[in-house]
């Protein structure tokens, strides 16, 4: 069928609304073709003309739809226009095709803005984590039998109550060589990433499970701290932990805070609807979470390599302290014109 | 702007309305739960296939490494392969959905096959963070109970707890009107059908005549104002559908009921011409009063009666 109608064909239409349709049909079909090509992922086959015409055609057809709704009773044409406008809308307002530009704005301020945006939640999560560590310490101090209950099995090998100072010190020493380290780092990362994702995702249940998870994880840390403190190795243990721990615990803190942010916003949405509040919080938290994953990669590399290669307590503390200062500076001191959220 | 297009026959309780940034109300249809489950299963099958292929090819490369090197020289290469495998599994599990849903189609291969895609609930742009948020939640909805069962063993309380957990999230879309899963709630997205519709021929005019030869002599039938005043837009659309489907049986039945209603007896044997004439004149009349701001929704609507 010809897509362009001569005037005679338009004249022949008995109804004004059909004439309206025939006059504009060429535009509709052109938009249809462009959208179909884009839906099939054939962006390269589109000419520059087509790409430039797309937004204009979209508005033209959208206005055709508005007019047709007020003047035409041709249900098939209306349904076609509605479907066409919707498909074009998907294309025009679809996901930003360039992930690169998103990443640029993410690193250039979006990430730190999102972290600052959940500030109160970070404070709460930090308190909960400290409380968790204190609870772990106190539990084990009152009754060492608690140790096995709160410390994950993989850490309770030789590091158990009653172990000698020498044994404990040995567990903190760097291992010689780099054999197996990169596999270890990769394993640590994928394991920690799942824990962080869990801490975030559990925020959905109004944040309560997130808090429980944070308490549980930190209780183990508190118990181990008690153990090394008993052997007079507090500083050595802190140094051993700080190499990656300042990054990793910071990441888990942010993940927990992100989860809490979602949960808290859903519980107290203010004057927005729960769904609006949840999606705004969720998008901000998602940015924090992308950052958390990146931090965990850094932490895994530090844990897998730096900690095993540097056995010196001072050197370890330096690295750990430097990383902590770096993150804090990036999140809280780095502001670019207060661009606000990406969301 | 009318809130909901009154000219469209509402088809199901899955129809929703979305306002574009230009202020145009678009009717959209939410994806059915069945289509979404099917899409998910297809995606999982694809992910599983990708993982198996990756694992097998890495094992193949690894066995080659063993042949080529002595045990000490090969261990570094083996470790590298293991790291590759861990990264690949992590990416398949987490990046598969991100990669496809961020593409121009807004749909994973499974969603495309079932004709659905994701969209922003507020009608705005589908952001990168929206897609990330909705997929982070997938972890607790699906993977967590699975890993939990495999880690603790499926017997006893752990299995029950995991099953209950899984059910809560699996059934989540059944307990809200828009069929949102937990990830959709947090991300502000929803899953909709991708509309597919061909432009059909106009009902009057030369184009129609080229495609479907008009029945005998449409001009032979003239209807009075009173004949046309009995029906509204709803009946007009029903008539349009009957004419487009063009089934002889339906034409006869509709012709009979219109004749009864308006008290005419002609047109028997030439039902199609009769109905086309009636359609064109009824539509002309309704559209004319529409331009004057008066609409008649259906035959019970007295508002626009002349």
Overview of the structural elements:
The complex is a heterodimer of chains A (343) and B (306). By secondary structure, chain A is mainly alpha-helical. Chain A has two domains: 7-92, no CATH class; 99-333, no CATH class. Chain A has 13 helices and no strands. Chain B has two domains: 15-193, no CATH class; 206-291, no CATH class. Chain B has helices spanning 33-68, 71-101, 109-113, 128-136, 138-152, 156-170, 182-187, 206-211, 225-228, 233-245, 248-262, 271-291; strands spanning 15-19, 25-29, 116-120, 189-193. In chain B, the strands form two sheets. Chain B has a two-stranded antiparallel ribbon. A two-stranded antiparallel sheet of chain B has the order 3-4. At the A-B interface, helix 1, helix 2, helix 3, helix 4 and helix 9 of A face strand 2, helix 2, strand 3, helix 4 and helix 5 of B.
Architecture blueprint of SSEs:
The complex is a heterodimer of chains A (about 350) and B (about 300).
Chain A: H1 7-12, H2 16-39, H3 48-71, H4 75-92, H5 99-117, H6 119-142, H7 146-150, H8 165-172, H9 181-201, H10 208-230, H11 234-267, H12 274-309, H13 313-333
Helix pairs in contact in A: 2-3, 2-4, 3-4, 5-12, 6-10, 6-11, 9-10, 9-11, 9-12, 10-11, 11-12, 11-13
Chain B: E1 15-19, E2 25-29, H1 33-68, H2 71-101, H3 109-113, E3 116-120, H4 128-136, H5 138-152, H6 156-170, H7 182-187, E4 189-193, H8 206-211, H9 225-228, H10 233-245, H11 248-262, H12 271-291
Antiparallel strand pairs in B: 1-2, 3-4
């Amino acid at each position: 069928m010809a897509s362009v109608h001569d005037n005679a064909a338009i004249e022949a239409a008995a109804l004004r609304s059909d004439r309206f349709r025939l006059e504009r049909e060429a535009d509709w079909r052109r938009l249809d073709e462009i959208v179909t090509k884009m839906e099939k992922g054939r962006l390269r086959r589109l000419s520059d003309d087509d790409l430039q015409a797309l937004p204009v055609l979209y508005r033209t057809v959208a206005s055709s739809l508005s007019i047709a709704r007020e003047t035409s009773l041709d249900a098939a044409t209306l349904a076609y226009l509605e479907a066409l406008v919707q498909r074009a809308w998907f294309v025009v307002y679809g996901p930003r095709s360039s992930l690169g530009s998103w990443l640029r704005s993410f690193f250039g301020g979006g990430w730190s803005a999102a972290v600052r945006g959940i500030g109160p939640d970070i404070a709460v999560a930090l308190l909960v984590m400290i409380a968790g560590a204190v609870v772990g310490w106190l539990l084990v101090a009152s009754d060492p039998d608690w140790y096995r209950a709160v410390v994950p099995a993989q850490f309770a090998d030789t590091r158990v109550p009653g172990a000698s100072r020498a044994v404990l010190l040995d567990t903190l020493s760097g291992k010689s060589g780099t054999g197996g380290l990169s596999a270890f780092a990769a394993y640590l990362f994928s394991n920690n990433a799942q824990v962080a994702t869990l801490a975030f995702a559990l925020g959905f249940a109004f944040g309560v499970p997130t808090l429980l998870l944070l308490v549980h994880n930190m209780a183990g840390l508190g118990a181990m701290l008690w153990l090394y403190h008993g052997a007079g190795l507090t500083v050595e243990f802190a140094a051993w932990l700080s190499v990656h721990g300042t990054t990793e615990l910071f990441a888990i803190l942010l993940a927990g805070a992100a989860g809490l942010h979602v949960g808290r916003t859903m519980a107290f949405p203010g004057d927005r609807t729960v769904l609006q509040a949840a999606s705004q919080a969720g998008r901000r938290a998602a940015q924090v979470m992308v950052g958390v994953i990146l931090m965990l990669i850094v932490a895994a590399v530090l844990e897998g390599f730096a900690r095993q290669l540097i056995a010196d307590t001072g050197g370890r503390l330096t690295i750990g302290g430097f990383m902590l200062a770096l993150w804090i500076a990036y999140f809280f001191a780095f502001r670019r014109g207060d661009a606000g959220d990406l969301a | 702007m009318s809130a909901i297009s009154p000219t469209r026959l509402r088809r199901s309780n899955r129809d929703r309305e979305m306002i574009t940034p230009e202020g145009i109300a678009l009717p959209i249809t939410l994806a059915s739960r069945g289509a979404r489950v099917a899409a998910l299963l297809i995606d999982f099958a694809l992910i599983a296939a990708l993982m198996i292929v990756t694992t097998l090819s890495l094992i193949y490369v690894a066995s080659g490494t063993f042949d080529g090197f002595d045990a000490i020289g090969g261990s570094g290469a083996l470790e590298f392969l293991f790291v590759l495998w861990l990264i690949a599994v992590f990416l398949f599990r987490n990046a598969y959905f991100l990669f496809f849903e961020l593409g121009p189609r807004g749909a994973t291969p499974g969603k495309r096959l079932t004709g659905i895609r994701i969209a922003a609930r507020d009608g705005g742009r589908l952001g990168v963070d929206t897609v990330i948020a909705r997929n982070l939640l997938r972890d607790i909805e699906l993977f967590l109970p699975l890993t939990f069962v495999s880690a603790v063993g499926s017997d006893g309380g752990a299995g029950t707890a995991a099953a209950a957990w899984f059910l809560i999230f699996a059934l989540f879309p059944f307990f809200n009107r828009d069929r949102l899963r937990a990830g959709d709630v947090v991300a502000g997205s929803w899953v909709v059908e991708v509309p597919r519709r061909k432009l059909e021929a106009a009902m009057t005019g030369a184009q129609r005549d080229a495609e479907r030869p008009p029945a005998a002599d449409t001009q032979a039938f003239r209807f009075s104002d009173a004949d046309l005043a009995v029906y509204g837009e709803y009946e007009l659309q029903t008539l349009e559908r009957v004419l487009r489907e063009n089934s002889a049986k339906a034409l006869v039945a509709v012709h009979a009921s219109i004749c009864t209603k308006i008290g005419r007896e002609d047109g028997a044997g030439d039902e199609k011409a009769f109905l086309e004439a009636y359609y064109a004149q009824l539509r002309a009349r309704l559209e004319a009063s529409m331009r004057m701001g008066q609409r008649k929704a259906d035959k019970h609507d007295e508002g626009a009666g002349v």
